[in-house]
Amino acid sequence: MNYNKLFVTLFYSGLAKKAPGTVGSFVALVLGYAILFYFPLETLVSATLTIGIIGIFEINKYQKRTDTHDPKEVVIDELVGMWIALSMVPFGIFEALLAFAMFRVFDITKPSVIGRIDEKMKSGLGVMLDDVLAGIFGGIASLIILKLLALIGLY
Question: Can you tell me the mean pLDDT for 9-16?
Fold first, then answer.
């Protein structure tokens, strides 16, 4: 069994024929929500940091072995970004789905510095860092939306 591929494709979810990044992000959402259901937030944050660091090295190995840069099947970076966004919002189904949507918006569109990192850094660090930033931006956007919804009485 190729454990590197199993890890970087997030249990092969990145091998989905359509929208592998979204499929991997959804798998990450389910796993992250389960962690938050049973464990404190610190567990998710610690797991995110650990997987993020290991992921950089594993992505480097995968890219070297496949002679590619940021191949679409590599979605462990989506897990890290999704878990960052998820860790920033209050616990709840609506909040988790909002964090998922906002993370995907920033990960797909890659505005500003996210896109520059994706273009210029060709290592595992670059692959991971653009999703870390998409997760941070997605989490902040989610918090702003929740605050706006609260201000108008819809949350």
Answer: 98
